[in-house]
Amino acid sequence: MDEGVLPATRVNGAFLPNFTGKRIVVIASVMKIHPSGRSMEVKTSDDRVITVNFNRPLIDSVKGLVEIHGVGSGKNVMTGEFFFEFPEEISETFGKFFLLH
Question: pTM for the full model?
C-alpha cells in the first residue's frame, strides 16, 4: 500500500455523523458550489444533502458525480481533502441499474 494514502470508510449521508473525525469516502452528485469555491453541496446516494468544506478554493468547475475523500466533520458536513470527478457518461447512468426489475 502507498504510504501516502490512508484507509478510509465509504459512507452515505445517513452514516456520516457516525464518522466524525474519521477518514471517509463519499460518492455524491454535485448540487451547488459556493461562490468562494471553498465548499460545495452534494447529494449522496441515499438522497441526503451534505456540505463539503475545502481548505483551498476549487480551481475548476465541478459537476456531476464525484468521489470525495476527507474527514467527517459532523452531521451533514465533511472536510474534503481531494476528489475525483467521474466522466459524464457514468454520472448520467449511475444508480439507474438499481431501478431495473
Answer: 0.85
